[in-house]
Design a protein that fits this description.
single chain; about 260 residues; alpha+beta; four-stranded antiparallel beta sheet; HS1/DABB1-like
Length: about 260
């Protein structure tokens, strides 16, 4: 497996669709369906207002989104939580504080989630009043194998802008070869693909998540010889990258109950 930001030596939308955490009654199904081979990936990065973080409004926002897991059908896997680390200049400039990662079996499932009244109400009541900015990207996984996400998994997210003249399918082909050459280094599994929601993505054309069993596993991949060789395969195609990391929270059955709102 290759991690895109380490592979990218670089200098340097309205909130409409947000991801949620599964309820206890759906935790087992969500864990299984997070491993589907070609999920639709949905990522939203949110930068909350400083006063929202200090007042507890940001925590209430997260709780309100988590509470939607029992109200909105079609979610295969959901996580919402704080960013662990910003790992590129582009990520630091954007400054997201929270990441929402969800998966759907089909694009219509994602569209139905976006339009669901409970989701719309949560966004209007809790997200819009507390967010300074958001960035979102959606893709259909083009990797050959599933990338299951479990409680405690550490995830490295990379959003890429391509060099002029490079097509997304070319990068997908190179990434497939690179990840195979890296031998899924350190046990990581990847999902990557071309963004199909450009209006909300601030120019990022391609997304990738690399899923590790733990933060220690994620840290160990940097400097791995096979990964370094794999980076060289994709580096010539890339113009800019936003990279950050987050840790998936406990299964909903183990998580604290949402706060009363």
């Amino acid at each position: 497996m290759i991690c895109l930001r380490a592979a990218f030596p670089l200098t340097s939308s309205p909130l409409r669709r947000l991801a949620l955490k599964p309820s206890s009654s759906r935790a087992a199904a969500a864990a299984m369906s997070s491993a589907i081979a070609a999920p639709v990936e949905h990522i939203v990065l949110i930068k909350v207002r400083p006063e929202a973080a200090s007042s507890g409004a940001a925590a209430a926002m997260v709780s309100s989104l988590q509470a939607l897991s029992t109200a909105v059908p079609g979610l295969s896997y959901i996580h919402v939580g704080p960013v662990l680390r910003l790992r590129s200049p582009a990520a630091e400039a954007l400054g997201p504080t929270h990441v929402l990662h969800s998966r759907y079996a089909t694009k219509p499932d994602l569209a139905a989630y976006a339009a669901h009244p409970a989701h719309v109400a949560a966004v209007q009541g809790h997200v819009l009043p507390n967010a300074l900015d958001s960035t979102a990207i959606d893709w259909v996984n083009a990797a050959l194998v599933p990338s299951p996400v479990n409680p405690g998994s550490a995830v490295r997210l990379s959003l890429a802008k391509l060099k002029e003249g490079v097509e997304a399918h070319q990068l997908a082909e190179k990434l497939a070869a690179a990840t195979a050459a890296a031998g899924e280094a350190k046990g990581a599994k990847v999902s990557f693909g071309e963004n199909f929601s450009p209006a909300r993505a601030k120019g990022y054309q391609f997304g990738m998540v690399a899923v590790f069993d733990s933060v220690e596993g994620l840290d160990a991949v940097d400097g791995d010889g096979k990964v370094e060789a794999a980076k060289a395969i994709v580096r010539p195609l890339l113009d800019d990258v936003l990279e950050l990391e987050f840790v998936v929270g406990p299964a909903a059955a183990e998580a604290p109950a949402p706060a009363n709102l």
